[in-house]
From TrEMBL:
It comes from Listeria seeligeri FSL N1-067. This is Putative transcriptional regulator. InterPro entries: Cro/C1-type_HTH, Lambda_DNA-bd_dom_sf. One of its GO terms (molecular function) is DNA binding. Signal peptide: none annotated. The lineage of its organism: Bacteria, Bacillati, Bacillota, Bacilli, Bacillales. Coiled coil: none annotated. PROSITE patterns: HTH_CROC1. Residues 7-65 form the HTH cro/C1-type domain. It comes from the Bacteria. It holds the Pfam family HTH_3.
Amino acid sequence: MSVGSRIRRVRKFRDMTQKELGIALGYDEKSADVRITQYETGTRTPKIDVLNAMAEVLNVNVLSLKEPTLYSAEDILSILFEIDEETNVKLFDIEDNSDSSISDSNIGVVINYRILQDFLREWKLRKQELNDGIITKNEYTEWKINWPYTADDCGKIEPKIQWKNNK
C-alpha cells in the first residue's frame, strides 16, 4: 500500500477532512486540502518530517504511514497488519523443535488467501528440498529470484523458466 493510501486510510479512520489535516499540519487554509490531496494521490511525496508531524496529528505510529522496507520486524508486522485489513489473518501458538537456535514456542500465521497458501506450499517444498540436499543453494536462489516464472505448483506443471541444474 502506498504512502498516500496509508495517509488516506488513517485520516478517514480519524474522521478528518483533507482540509482539517492540512491545517493541523500548518498549511495555509486555502491550499491545505490541495496539499493533502497531492500526498494521497502520490503526486507529491511527504518528507519524513512531514510524515512525523502527520503521525502526531493523526495520533499514530509513523510506521503506519510509511511504506515498509522489509528490513525490520516493525516493517514486517506493518505489512502483516495491511494483509489483515484485506483477509482474515489467524495467529496461533506452535511448537517447533526443528532448530535448537530458536525458541520452542513460536507464533504461527495463517493468511486465508488460497493462492498465497499455494505459493507458500511450494516455497516450503523448495526449502525442504534445499535442507535435504535435493537442490543446491544456487538452485534455490535461482528459483526465488525468478519467481513466479519458476513456479511449478509443487511439480505439477512445467515452469516458464527452468531453474534446476539438470545434471
